Amino acid sequence: MSGSAPDTVIAAPRANSRTLQRGVLGIVLFILAWEGIARGFHLPAYTLPAVSDILASIWTKRQILLTAAGFTITEAVVGYVIGALIGVALAVVITLVPMTRAVLLPAATAINSVPVVAYSPLILLWFGIGMPSKFVMVALAVSFTVFLSTLAGFDRVDRRSVDLLRSFGAGRLAILWRLRLPTALPLMAAGLRVSTVRSIIVAIVTEMLGAYGGLGWVIYQAVLQIDFVQVWGAIFVASAASLAFFGLIGFAERRIIFWK
Amino acid sequence: MSASTLSHPASAPGGSSSLKLLLPLLRLLRGLAILVAVFALWEALVVVFAIRPYYLPRPSVIFAALWQTPAPYVQGFLRTLTETLIGFASGAAFGIGIGLVFFRLRALRELVFPLFIVSQTIPVIAFGALVVLWFGNTLFAKAAIAFYLTFFPVTVNTLLGLESVDPRQEALLRSFGASPRQLMMRLQFPTALPQIFVALRLASSLALVGAIVGEWFGDTVGLGVLLLQGMYTENVVSIWATLLVSAFLGTTFYAVVAGAERLFVFWGAEQ
């Protein structure tokens, strides 16, 4: 997972009305096709339940799903904030004290050479199956992405601008605040945006291995009870939560980085 | 002066090629040295601060475990590697193919692309339960999850790359009578290649994630299975050994893809 800044992978959300219409049309057609196939071929629920059945099940079990979603979103958001803070802090430390780069960067890359989800058994053993283990997992997943994109942003600054500010007597801190941070913001924001979806997914993955509640726990229980309508219901809710989180951060990004 | 410029081209290729061979070797040696230093530091820290093995076992203990019972780790490594490779190859091929189709058919892209984005917000592991149900508990079920994680970034970056082609270059080639096919092979695809490789590098890590998570659904062999078994038996040493093997697999695969990138994108437009 080392290397590229994540901004190259997910394009910034941009849409005009025609694109939007087509997109909505595509989703509607997809749902109709799904419904038609599931009903037309009388597919059993364990193969593919109809969308209407899933939505009905979400409505009847809304209490369970809402509680679970609240659980998962809390874990994801707390872990996300911790991870983002750690990521930015590490990038700031490396920029202010360049000596630390030789230690911190390889260490972060080494930790990240293992796929994040592979840590979850270990983290569950260390922190128990309550919420703290999910905070740690989400923070771990988010911090590296944010760290890399922030560092890439700080490094992107034009050498000559740094020299100019320095010639006016600006210290490292002033250069960081007045020049590097504004330059880095678009890349940082891209890292933060990509991390939103990842944070919810990682929270759910960790919940499935052990938890007292949450969407992952609901999915796991539903799999055990062979209740696949419920699995799909939880998937729908998780997907909606991820999209909402993604949209929220994207909205904040457009507000804060108005010059982009 | 003329003598030196004459002799230079003759001597240069030999010198640069031996240097080219030496440089990666030196880099590899430096990486190994850092690795040894890290393990030494780790060992020292655990001993000095008397950290309980439950939290952090000594690396020597982990390597001893790997050495004494290598069979499950080797089998797990091979199994997970196979799943990763199948998922990665199919995901990359599908991603590039769909990227090309979307590039040509704008309407189709606008129709389908939002679905792709939504599909990426589905938690993989939940999907895992369904995929295992659909494909049975086979190698392909795991590869399907790796595929699912891989194809999206490749599609997006293929599109981005194809769209970054300079319209003036395109107009120039057209004015020479280039067919759409020639345009693709000579200009558009080569221009997109650096972007595609950025996604392939990312996809190499994602494919491994998919394979490991996929194994959590009732498989018997694989690195993901070893991780779960380690958790249930609270065998921290085994978990760490598996983590190290996964890191080795991930890093090697990543390095191979990055190597292929240097080979194919020799003009180095990116980086």
TrEMBL record, chain A:
InterPro entries: MetI-like, MetI-like_sf. One of its GO terms (biological process) is transmembrane transport. Its main location: membrane. Keywords: Cell membrane, Membrane, Transmembrane, Transmembrane helix, Transport. GO terms for cellular component: plasma membrane. It comes from Azorhizobium oxalatiphilum. It is a multi-pass membrane protein. The chain crosses the membrane at residues 24-44, 64-97, 104-129, 135-154, 200-220, 232-252. It comes from the Bacteria. Residues 69-247 form the ABC transmembrane type-1 domain. This is ABC transporter permease. It is found in: Cell membrane.
TrEMBL record, chain B:
It comes from the Bacteria. Residues 77-255 form the ABC transmembrane type-1 domain. Belongs to the binding-protein-dependent transport system permease family. One of its GO terms (biological process) is transmembrane transport. The keyword Transmembrane applies. It is a multi-pass membrane protein. The keyword Magnesium does not apply. Keywords: Cell membrane, Membrane, Transmembrane, Transmembrane helix, Transport. This is ABC transporter permease. PANTHER family: ABC TRANSPORTER PERMEASE PROTEIN, ALKANE SULFONATE ABC TRANSPORTER-RELATED, MEMBRANE SUBUNIT. The chain crosses the membrane at residues 28-51, 85-105, 112-135, 141-162, 192-217, 237-257. It holds the Pfam family BPD_transp_1. GO terms for cellular component: plasma membrane. It is found in: Cell membrane. The lineage of its organism: Bacteria, Pseudomonadati, Pseudomonadota, Alphaproteobacteria, Hyphomicrobiales.
